[in-house]
Amino acid sequence: MRTARWQGLAYVAPFLILYAALLIFPLLMGMGLSFYRADLFGAKVWTGLGNYGRLLSDPVFLHALRNTFKLVLLIVPTLTALTLALAVALNRRTRGAAVLRGVFFSSSVLSVTIVTLIWRFVLTPDAGLFAEVAQALGREPLPWLSHPDLTIPALALTTIWWSIGLPMMLFLAGLQQIPSDMYEAAALDRSSRWTTFRRITLPQLRRTLLLVVMLQTAAQLQLFGQAQLLTAGGPSGASRPVVLFIFEVAFVRWELGYALAAAEILFTLVLLATLAQYWAARPREDAR
Amino acid sequence: MNRDRMPPLALVLTLVGAAAMVAPLVWTVLLSLKSNAELLQDTGAAFRGPYTLENYGAILKGDMVFRWLLNSLIVSLGTTAGVLALSSLAGFAFARLDFPFRRTLFVFVLLGLAIPEQAVILPQHRLFAWLGLHNSYPGLILPGLVGSFGVFFMTQYFRGLPRDLDEAAALDGASTFQIFARVLLPLTVPAQATLGVFTFLGSWNAYWWPLISATTSDRFTLTVGLASAQANYAQTNGLGYLMAQAVFASLPILIVYVLFQRQIVNAIGGAVK
Amino acid sequence: MRRWLAPLLLLGSCAQGPDRTEIHLQRFFGDCSAEYGRSLDIGGAEGECGIVTTLLNRFRAENPDIELKINIVAWPGYAQLAAQMAANEPPDLVTMHQGLITDYQTRGLLQPLDGVLAQAGLQPADFTAAGQRGVVKDGRVYGLPWDTVGGLFHVNTRLFEQAGLMEGGRPVLPRSADELLAHARRFKAATGKPYLVQSSVNDPATHTRNLYTYLLAQEAVIFPDARHVRLRTPEAKRVLELFRTLEREGLTTTNQDNPAAIASFLGGEGGVFPTGTWMIGPFDAEAKTPGRPLYGAYAVFPYPRLFGREASFVDGHSWVMPRRERTPEQEAAIARLLRFMAERNFDWSRTGHLPAVQAVVDDPRFRALPHRADIAPLASNGRLLPPYVQRQGAIEGLIGEEVASAVAGTKSVDRALADAERRVNELLASTL
């Protein structure tokens, strides 16, 4: 039986080796390099916590951090509420509901480049769909891609449109696992739709809800492609999220160490968001 | 699932939402069917005829977009196959086998769930440069294989399968690998499908890694290739052409999606437990 | 159908014949394969993209023994180039702005071209003075200079006529900042359209060019040394306040990125489009097409003297060779390509850029091109930044971003200039 005890390792080894070599090793390497003033081409000078100190007093980084939080706060609650409502509405066995589920999922299969290409020509005030509609209504088109107050909402709108599919599917999956006798009991009690939703659906979907919020928070903390391609972080940094900051610092300014320090801060944020989810999920598990 | 009709208000709201989902796509298709010169004067012309297929003709006349499409397919399929194989093996072992450091290793893998791409991508880029893996299919595929989500997900799924199955098979003299491959693996098809869809879409949409790892246009994936086409200083190819490229590039995956929609939707529904 | 099968068949197998030398070229200037995919008609091509595409098509056709692979990158492509260099996978030839050569040269990332140029039968003396200044560093040649580029005032003369700003068939350009404002107000009153068409969104290059040009005109020292920029000056403030006033009074188009601004100017939506030499070709083509808003109504001049003396901030494109291992056959192929490009410098100058090969400047064919006499001053009073200034591309992005905020009014002019100065100085201080 000795061989059998070790046999398990052979099954996990292929993944673990790649995982350690291509994820954990670079992670540690990045942490190490974040203590250096290093350029993209190998030159480096030790600075200790210098990069971190500089980041915390760099208005551009702090602005990017604020932008990222704004995006998360705009996107995650909206997307969660919207997809939950859609899932409840479309959790039916009719043909129409099936078609609509398909429609709402369809944008998820498009790549970010295509999404931004499409939305550029929806939003741009000179040639976009919104501009055409505004003109037809006799209004001035809004400068979605260049006004400091509008670029973040524009990115949020694009992202919501793009990512509505998966959370909706997760909620639909969650809904299907709710035993139907719970609803039948509610029907006998003549509970209103709202009461049923609040008393049965929502508590039963608690785990799915946490999963969706958690996945979306992690995803939107890392929002990058839309911002780079749609607004380039502009105007004047008004829509530059942290990841675009990291990209620019590394590949335009060539300050690899500084970029990595920013990446480690982002890593900490994602880690905290993940731990918060575990913490939020725990009381329930204990009660079981 | 509910059998009755939607309440009228919900129906109206849902239809409005669906229209909002579809409108940008219709607009894109309309733009792609117009001549570039006409759009330069007024994009509103997209709402009126005459429509033309000239932009699609131009794409078919030889363009990198075919190559990019093919690269995206190779990379996405390669990543998906790799993730499914690695995650199934590891998931089975974590769920069913007892081996030294099992718990420690599982926690070690879970840690990966919290590592964002940005924390590792720059050092990864260096590492791949040392290994000489940039601008190659393995270079594009490998970073996609190390996500922890697949292992976590498959472990949970294997745990949910009844134990008596393996015990019965073991009594019949099946080896551990036979139990894995013949008995349990076929039962994980819904989970494989879900994980496959997630992985495929994630890889299909990957942007930053191929942007810095693929260095010549014959290795670009679709996302990177189209980004280079759209972000040019003077938009030389014209709006209609760009939109035709977008439509053209989306078609294969949209067709696959429409054909397999039921499976994809059922798969996602079936596996989140 | 065969074309689309070809990549499938080639996949994975290096099916090129062993006798063909493969070289990788990477360029910006856009992708216009839709229009010029296989065209060899260089003379019939218009604009940077059309001309460079047909040039390279022609080179391929004339040199069947060379397998020329072309990578078209998104403007300006330097992020990818940096990633490629960090990955030890740079291309063989790359388009590079002359102002950026120092960055790569000082880090040993570029190969000196002296040998390859000699092989191509070219020497530095063949280039214009501006071209030589752009590519010769520490006594060695690091690039084939291809042109000199700068900002110009592209004018819609029909609208100028309506505004009474024509005299003897020529547009009247302002001679001071106040006069510019006066002209712009008059123009707006007469035509109902903005005087300026500006690409102000996602276009730091335009903002920075405006600032540099008018700082040079005032003989302000922008970079006193390699580690510092000087922007908190009355000279800089004067320039930004002018552009802020134009924006505040609605004398310019707003919220336009470069494609939108081009479309506006082509559609006759404004009087003057300050943009680069590269638009002369396309605008002139429009001006010769009956029925277009710009038909018979186009003229172009250097940025007018608004402060101090006449001056222009210029730069140039060049072809550089990143350092990597190459076979002698590859170097020979590169030499042939460079020779071809230098010989075709006249064709490139049809874009509107000033040629970098002296023989082309002296060529009557070049002088016969439209508008070249009007923009000739650019060649004599155009100035580059001092050669010791590193990271010019990154600096352009930082300054452009801050100038954009000041012009849009989201930051005060003083604050924007202070922020720009601080950010540039930080960048220069952290340069290794």
From TrEMBL, chain B:
Keywords, alphabetical: Cell membrane, Membrane, Transmembrane, Transmembrane helix, Transport
Membrane topology: Multi-pass membrane protein
Annotated ranges, domain ABC transmembrane type-1: 69-260
Coarse class of the protein's main subcellular location: membrane
InterPro entries in alphabetical order: MetI-like (IPR000515), MetI-like_sf (IPR035906)
CDD domains: TM_PBP2
Subcellular location: Cell membrane
Gene Ontology cellular component annotations, sorted alphabetically: plasma membrane
Official protein name in the record: Permease
UniProtKB/TrEMBL annotation, chain C:
Location in or out of the cell: Periplasm
Main location, first listed in the record: periplasm
Family matches, as Gene3D superfamilies: Periplasmic binding protein-like II
CC terms in the record's Gene Ontology section: periplasmic space
InterPro entries membership: Bact_solute-bd_prot1, SBP
Domain of life per record: Bacteria
Pfam families with a match to the protein in the record: SBP_bac_8
Family: Belongs to the bacterial solute-binding protein 1 family.
Stated name of the protein: Sugar ABC transporter substrate-binding protein
